[in-house]
Specification:
The structure holds 2 protein chains of 2 kinds. Helices cover 15% and strands 46% of the residues of chain A. Chain A is of the alpha+beta class. Classes of the chains: A alpha+beta, B alpha/beta.
């Protein structure tokens, strides 16, 4: 009891002191809490502000991501063996050499491409800017239907859907130029028109692609000059052999078109007055405005094989045959209203590539291509007696083959160096050796090989 | 002649030394696989100090582009390569690429843990993400608007989900695209009306719905057993792609990934081994 009494004052003091103490402690704690809360709110506001800004910029970036800008520049040095030949040396090897020049630096291509890709709709514009001028390469709209996303429609200026080499980009192609065959039949590669395509992305049919279109037929930049439209189509199928690291792609193409004759005279393979091979002439008045057949059929195949320890091997080939309306001095497709008679020739041509990747950076290339512009005549048909006049044979009828040897070094994913040598061989017109014929130079192989050293930067 | 021989020997020795001393493997691609790829790399580098493996994400599409451009040795992808991507690889390197299946993954459908909906059919999920079902009430939930979260279009998960669940249809324009499955999970965690999709490895902290193939089928949760048995309807493989048939250090690394040791990491990260 005494002890209890002694403790009582202390207990009373504690009873009063403890709440006071807790009040005293509570005061600074509340301040800290308030400060922390304020800081948190400020941080939250700042984060909200950043989040709003991010959302705004994200919207802008999402739109900008649909716009893709790409391009490449190919600058090169080329040299050849001979100048002042009867025809333009190098015309099919990057452009004819100027008179008196056996070597030149040039900008072969300077491309700038803008694509707006909104998944199902595409806008594409590509220009080529080189010292000789700026030209339009692509300008088209492509729309894919939204239901199966397999069918689409494309309209404007774009690659004509024929074969493989046309649509294989110049920036990716292993040789500096396309085959003589394609440069002759499809100069500029592109055409103005519209096409439908079927390209399923899913399922077993994703290995199939089909394109069919209607084009003016006058090439990429020329205006239409007749009332004929050309139907062009290509169907391709891919067959993978993944178990052995190989794949085979095959395709078939067709071209059904016409070129208007402005003249009553039409020349086709036949015999001349002395019975020698040459051209026969049809001079019916109804030939004016007649549509001359431009019919091709083509087959293409690409084989890929992953060669152990070395790298991928590519074998690529294409064969085209048909009827080509040209002019007396050229079998190149006509791109403007002809003011001289049309020469209709049956032609054939093919090419084959062998490309061997060595590691990631190196590629070795071997290519052989042949273009026979007139299958009705052989080298032995050329003679002094049938190589003059409108019905006579000319340099246009000579078969030319080109063997190309190349090495490509990929410096990185943007830069590559190309070293390429083309051995151009013409048919040897032995009958004309020692004659005064203008074609006598072709009695042997013309010295028109071309070396190309190219640097390409792509972005 | 002696000088030439010496010079040649020096070049040869230098070349051999540099090849032996430095083995560097770059890996790029799927964000879904980035943690798995990092774990693989860490374990492998610990066992083989002479090998350096650099792993980065960016999405399956980014990884495949890097494979085509030659800027990565291995591409991680949570979807198969498209025919157009195979074409680009063929044109540049002459191969279709080598596809290696390394793991299986169940693609989970996430909702906020307070959401009363327990299961959905594939068709319902498709209609939700295509924007035809817009209220939770239409699938047995409360009368609240469904908020869609998904991945960005460079993601393999985005493409896989679109191709296999939406059957190629486009996502609704209202879907909010987020960079990485972790971001999707985070968004759904904070949004009681949200729905998202992603790999099982990221499914912690939110509720994963049961999914059934059709209205009459049994609903399955994305568990190990259900994914391995093939009962869970949204499963996919996780791939490695290389340009050529792998040799040397690359082959050793890929062989190790497919070994028991490598596959044990697949389980640790939350995916399902293929062996």
């Amino acid at each position: 009891m005494t002890r209890w009494k002694q403790s009582l004052p202390y207990m009373l003091m504690l009873t009063v002191a403890l709440p006071l103490l807790s009040l005293a402690q509570e005061e600074p704690a509340t301040k800290a809490e308030t400060t922390t809360r304020q800081e948190l709110e400020e941080t939250r506001d700042a984060l909200q502000g950043l989040s709003d800004s991010f959302a705004e910029y994200r919207g802008i970036v999402d739109v900008l991501r649909k716009i893709k800008i790409s391009g490449y520049i190919q600058s090169q040095y080329r040299s050849t063996d001979l100048v002042s030949t009867p025809y333009a040396v190098g015309a099919f090897s990057g452009g004819a050499f100027p008179t008196n020049s056996k070597g030149l630096f040039q900008i072969r291509r300077g491309r700038l491409k803008v694509t707006y890709d909104n998944v199902l709709t595409q806008y594409v514009l590509q220009i080529d800017a080189i010292p000789t001028g700026v030209s339009l390469k692509d300008a088209y709209v492509a729309i894919t239907e939204p239901w199966t996303k397999s069918f689409g429609f494309q309209m404007g200026v774009f690659d004509r859907p024929f074969g493989y080499e046309i649509s294989y980009s110049s920036s990716s192609r292993e040789t500096p130029e396309r085959s003589r065959l394609f440069q002759t039949l499809f100069p500029g590669e592109r055409g103005t028109g519209a096409k439908l395509f079927y390209a399923p992305q899913l399922g077993p049919l994703s290995m199939l692609r089909a394109d069919v279109g209607v084009f003016n037929g006058s090439g990429p930049s020329a205006l239409e000059f007749d009332n004929f439209k050309d139907l062009i189509g290509h169907v391709a199928y891919q067959i993978p052999f993944d178990d052995i690291g190989a794949a085979l792609d095959i395709g078939v193409s067709g071209y059904l078109g016409s070129t208007r004759s402005s003249s009553r005279y039409i020349y086709e393979a036949g015999t001349i007055a002395n019975g020698a091979p040459g051209y026969g002439v049809d001079s019916a008045l109804t030939n004016v405005s007649r549509g001359m057949n431009r019919h091709y059929i083509g087959f293409d195949a690409q084989f890929y094989y992953d060669l152990p320890l070395l790298g991928g091997t590519i074998l690529r080939g294409e064969y085209i045959t048909g009827t080509q309306p040209g002019l007396a001095g050229s079998s190149t497709s006509i791109s403007a209203l002809p003011t001289t008679p049309i020469y209709s020739r049956k032609f054939t041509g093919w090419y084959a590539y062998l490309i061997q990747n060595i590691g990631q950076a190196n590629q070795l290339v071997l290519k052989y291509d042949v273009y026979d512009p007139n299958t009705d005549v052989a080298a032995s048909d050329f003679a002094a007696s049938n190589t003059s006049g409108a019905t006579g044979l000319s340099a246009t009828d000579i078969t030319v083959s080109t063997l190309g040897l190349g090495w490509i070094y990929h410096w990185d994913d943007n830069v590559k160096f190309v070293f390429y040598y083309e051995i151009v061989n013409n048919e040897k017109l032995t009958n004309l050796a020692g004659t005064s014929s203008s074609l006598s130079i072709y009695s042997d192989d013309v010295r028109d090989n071309v070396l190309t050293l190219r640097t390409q930067v792509k972005f | 002649m002696q000088n030439i021989t010496r010079l040649f020997s020096l070049v040869l020795i230098f070349g051999v030394i540099s090849v032996v001393a430095e083995v560097k493997i770059t890996v790029k691609g799927s964000d879904t696989m980035v943690i798995l790829a990092q774990r693989w790399a860490e374990r492998y580098m610990a066992a083989k100090p002479d090998v350096t493996i650099q792993v980065t994400g960016g999405g399956s599409g980014t990884g495949i582009s890097a494979l085509i451009n030659g800027t990565t040795d291995i591409c991680n992808a949570s979807r198969p390569m498209k025919p157009s991507e195979r074409d680009k690889l063929k044109q540049r390197f002459g191969t279709r690429g080598v596809e290696i299946k390394t793991a299986q993954d169940g693609l989970s459908i996430y909702v906020h843990e307070s959401n009363s909906v327990q299961e959905l059919t594939i068709e319902q999920i498709r209609n939700i993400y295509a924007g035809r079902i817009t209220s939770w009430k239409e699938v047995g939930g409360s009368n609240e608007k469904i908020i869609l979260y998904g991945r960005e279009n460079n993601s393999g998960t985005y493409v896989y989900f679109r191709d296999n669940v939406l059957l190629g249809e486009d996502y609704s324009a209202t879907m909010q695209s987020l960079p990485g499955t972790a971001a999707v999970v985070n968004a759904v965690t904070k949004d009681k009306n949200g729905i998202g999709y992603g790999g099982a490895a990221y499914g912690k902290g939110i509720r994963e719905l049961k999914v059934k193939a059709d209205a009459n089928a049994t609903a399955y949760a994305p568990t190990v057993e259900n994914i391995k048995n093939g009962d869970y309807p949204i499963t996919r493989f996780l791939y490695l792609y290389v340009r050529n048939k792998p040799t040397g250090a690359l082959k050793e690394y890929i062989d190790w990934i497919l070994s028991d040791d490598g596959q044990s990491i697949v389980s640790q990260v939350g995916y399902f081994p293929i062996r």
